[in-house]
């Protein structure tokens, strides 16, 4: 039997077994479901706590369509396997969660299963939310039940075969998902602040969903859960939080890291791209103690040791490129970023010795020059400075020249950027 045939038969058998397992595990009708006692009335304190946790989980960003009612669902989430549409989380009895209980909601968060037992797609990050405690899940539930109802019917997902089947989901979950154990109190040797930070980063904040490297089947690799990755279906790169060459904060003070999470800017960096949305909609609302706890845990990750010695950066392709780049920089960039790339504190980031400028992956750098750089407006930084787009002003050659100049000046020592690097991104619209 030829290998492709063996693979086909193996896949078919796995899907068949998955279908059988799903059929066996899903309740056939409501009469077969165990009776549930009514949820206890929510308190104002619990609802307020749930509202805070919903902010931290950034729930509204995914569960609100553009121009739509908050939490009414319908926003498309692009994946390599098709588009998954977020569901209606309002308490509408037909379109939303009005017929659900707190137990049903816990099942979705912790086990990744709907009220009727259907397996949920991991675009809903239950692989992270499985770490959320029952107490926090109940607070979230109380808040969602307090929202105005919306009768928006859920939009069907548009996934190819076999990814749209419950059998394929069962196979994926068997390989890559295990619900978290019941939360165990932190060991005496672990400071409460560190334990709290780990809980927030790994759970509701679901940082690994963007910063985690994924395998071919879309699962975050456990040993690379914060090692950096290009976002699925996008060009933006979420840098490694464990690498000294990318975005490790082990060398920063906790106050600096907390400031970046809550204000979107500190003395070292300014957030941009998708992370600006995270700060604007979510982390700027962190309680001070939680912001410091997250900063403490992130600092503990430390820089990841390089697996191989870092090779010296290649020299600019030609002296002409360097000369052209220097001229463009002086005309277009120096007024904000400084003649020597020193930047302006509290406004424009320094480019000299800037890790974001020197990263091997240049996607974010190119996207920022093409489409502009915009920090989020936050309570601590309500009127952030922005960078205009240069897509219509500079050619691919111009951008390659100026970026190569910046990456090799003022102590920077990164490889040059080519016209091809610009061209492959120019005509793709970032989300």
Automatic annotation (TrEMBL):
Q: Which SUPFAM superfamilies match?
A: Cytochrome c
What residue stretches are annotated with the Cytochrome c domain? Answer: 45-148, 192-302, 320-410
- Which organism does this sequence originate in? Rhodoferax saidenbachensis
Q: In the UniProt record, does the keyword Iron occur?
A: yes
Q: Which UniProt keywords apply?
A: Heme, Iron, Metal-binding
Residues in the signal sequence: none
Name under which the protein is recorded:
Mono/diheme cytochrome c family protein
Query: Which PROSITE patterns is this protein grouped with?
Result: CYTC
